[in-house]
Write a structure and sequence with these properties.
This protein has 179 residues and is mainly β. It has one domain: Jelly Rolls. It is built from one helix and 14 strands. Strands 3, 6, 7, 8 and 12 form a five-stranded antiparallel beta sheet that branches. It has a four-stranded antiparallel beta sheet with strand order 1-14-4-11, covered by helices on one side. The longest helix has 8 residues. The protein is globular. It starts with 25 loop residues before the first helix and ends with a strand.
Length: 179
Amino acid sequence: MTPAQPLPLSPLSLDAFTRDYWGHYDAYAIAQLAPLAYEQCYQPKLYKAPAEAQELIAAKGYAAYGLSITSGSLIYGFYLPSLLATNAPLQWNVQIKDESLDRHFWDDPIPSVLIGNLKPTFLGQLSYPSTGTLGCFPNLLCCPYPVVGKGTFYVELWNPTANQQRVQLVIGVLENIGE
């Protein structure tokens, strides 16, 4: 007789604001990710676009960046902090193209508010932005996105505002470490 395996519990399910109720698919997405918590061939990793030196985008500006993610990894969501004053992220637009599949994530560029997630996890008092930010639970994709081929992505960012601003797109990935 084999010993009973523990039920898979994803660290994402420990978020107090994640509940299984109509209109919210976080619980279903977490259920897909939970078995990977015990897999030794994946480790959590965060990828950021653009690089820190290139985060500042001019008013009404556009910037494009290349991003390389380890092939065999799984993209599970986006981390985007909210401003304390508005409970929403900074306004910018994004489009991501998977170069290996020649496929865009969305039909058209989307505003940052659609990948933000107001489920606070911590309160940050950073100098930028001056009003502080709320660290947020990731905005999970409806299912993990497999990284195939060379793992190259083309990230396009637009600043639709009349002010220069810092743009940070952080992508949550379960990186394939091949053990």
